[in-house]
Amino acid sequence: MRFIGAGSRPGQPQIDHDLIVTVPNLITVLRFMGVPLFVWLVLAQKEYGFAVLVLAIMGGTDWVDGYVARRFNQTSKLGRVMDPIADRLALLAVAVTLVIAGVVQWWYLAALVVPDTILLVMTLFYFRSHPDLPVSRIGKTRTGLLLLGTPLLVLSRMSIPLSEVYFVTAWIVLGLGLLGHWIAAYNYFWAILRKGRMQTADDGGPS
Questions:
Q1: Average pLDDT, stretch 33-60?
Q2: Most exposed of 6, 12, 67, 120 (fewest Cβ within 10 Å)?
Q3: 18 CB-side CA count, 13 A
């Protein structure tokens, strides 16, 4: 079963429209609004069960907005930029919350932040804005693994059967997700560098 690229119609080109208000963009906004709810549930209420539900919904809508965009030809330039940024900010916010709650150690957050910081510095240097690069399959898979592993890890903190199994499974999935995170960052690093150098050569200096 194909998940990445699901909803696309064979033979029909996908056009990035200039639309702002689209169903996929609204879904992305709603998904990101789940972050403060998750933070409140974990830090203020210690309601890990409801926090897992919020994460599951966030992860599900991450697939839904892409499917709707491709299926109904509602891909937009804003959505192409906003969706990965919202995903990244959500993952970082959730990681910070879990560090504060003592669910994960600081090194997990550092493993997410360090490559993103390097890419951000490069992006600002060359483009002063978004580099407008396509999201790679590794990047999509990485996001899916992190979105799957995180609720499993939260589940392992609950007094439920098989909590140890959830803990081990979570770290296997998260480990693969972090590996994919660094591989994707490596690929984006060279893609940004190539595109930035080409733009610099065309403009006669950094843009």
A1: 92
A2: 12
A3: 0
